[in-house]
Fold this sequence. Notes:
Layout: E1 7-17, E2 22-25, E3 33-36, H1 44-50, E4 58-63, E5 77-81, E6 95-100, E7 103-112, E8 116-120, E9 130-141, H2 144-149
Antiparallel strand pairs: 1-2, 1-3, 1-9, 4-9, 5-8, 6-7, 7-8
Bound molecules: zinc ion.
The site of zinc ion has 5 residues, from loops.
Amino acid sequence: MxxxxxxxxxxxxxxxxxxxxxxxxxxDNGQPLAVLIGHGNIIPGLEKAMEGHEAGDAFKADVAAADxxxxxxxxLTQRIPKKHFGNARLAAGQQVVLNxxxxxxxxxxxxVGHSVVDVDLNHPMAGKDLTFDVEIVEVREAQQEEIDHGxxxxxxxxxx
Length: 160
Ligand code: ZN
């Protein structure tokens, strides 16, 4: 069965900045990721690269920044009271997850002051060309309920 819209794909991936060392892999926790295709659940360039593949396929996909996490934008620095970071030790360049009104968000610390911290709200991978190593584990038709919700239920997906 080929990967296309409204099918569920379970896959392993390793991602690196193009030409660099791997930064993240689904194999770190052993579980393949499960996504519903055609519902914006993964970056557009990766979804496009997966289309037409089947279970058992292994391939590399180069995804330009614009089709990954977008270009890095200027002016996304925000000054945040230090108390929002709890007791964590903070250093410039460090990535932390902040709970915002839009939900958890990965940010990069730019500067640590006495009572405030400057953070860059760009996604840590914004502006970076990425290379994915992908192994397709399973392809199946989505259930109607999954299509209605726009995400996968069960293994590797939402548990509810
Ligand atoms: Zn659901």
